[in-house]
Amino acid sequence: MKVAQHLQFSLTACIAAALLLCSTAALPQAAPAKPKAPAAAKRGAPPKATHVLHLSAVKLEYSGWTDQRLMGIVRSAGRLLARCGVKLQRVELVSLVVPPSYLDLATPEGQRALARDYSVARPAVYFVRNTRSNPAFEAESFGRGNSGSRPGLADTVWITLSARDPGIALAHELAHVLMDSGEHSEEPGNLMRDQITPKNTALTGAQCARLRDTATGNGLLRKLTKE
Ligand SMILES: [Zn+2]
Questions:
Q1: Which among 121, 115, 113 has a CA at the least distance from the CA of 93?
Q2: DSSP notation for 10-37
Q3: How much distance in Å is there from the Cα of 14 to the middle of ligand 1?
Q4: Which of 41, 79, 108, 117 is most buried, by CB atoms within 10 Å?
């Protein structure tokens, strides 16, 4: 873990030893491997993991986010991606103190500066306070295809405090990044419908295959050698 050398951001806390979600180590509230999420329970055990995901989670201090809330959201998203055989194996949580002007999504330049000046491994999720951008998104993501003029934002997800169903929103945005696609689905109940609701959490076999293949090709997932 390198320490930010840039003047405008100072690293206040860095849990450099990654939090292992599936171990007893993570946070005091860490859920055991079998959560009681209704959707997951209804659908039974996820398939055997064939790929692993290491995720960077960036929390902006004074944004209102807490480690506990943030990690709960990350775990929820991980449970949805597990249905594609993707195991969220490691989360690197980084807390940053930033100038107040960077607490909200305001301009692409601000996001780009943050992503550039404190670079973390990708894919990365930035937990920010609010949005002042227009159009206003509670959550958004940048794959490689839609970050053309902003390459520094590729493979990042941005979540605001006001995002509804944030675990589902994070899974949806991460799926955009992993598939490197901004496409939405019309299929009832699909996670990639443009509406984020608890009813929309399913991923098709084709979507999962695309997610795994594209993300592995882009270095965002690692294939397990033995299944
Ligand atoms: Zn979307």
A1: 121
A2: EEEEEEEEEEETTSS-S-TT---SS---
A3: 30
A4: 79
Q: pTM for the complete prediction? A: 0.80
Distance in Å, CA 182 to ligand 1 centroid: 6
- Ligand 1 centre distance from Cα of residue 21 (Å): 26
Give pLDDT tens digits for 96-153.
998 888 888 877 777 788 888 888 999 999 999 988 777 778 888 988 887 666 778 8
How far is it, in rounded angstroms, from Cα 34 to Cα 39? 12
Residues 192, 118, 20, CA angle at the centre, nearest 5°?
Answer: 60
**Best CA proximity match to 192, nearest among 200, 212, 223:** 200
- Centre a 10 Å sphere on the Cβ of residue 97 and count the other Cβ atoms it contains: 15
Expressed in angstroms and rounded, the spacing between residue 163 Cα and the centre of ligand 1 is: 13
> Contact at 8 Å (CB) between 155 and 144?
yes
Q: Report which of residues 6 and 110 the model is more confident about.
A: 110
Q: Give the ranges where 20-66 is alpha helix by DSSP (H).
A: 38-43
Q: Are 139 and 169 in contact (CB under 8 A)?
A: yes
- Phi and psi angles of residue 131, each rounded to the nearest 5 degrees, phi first: -125, 140
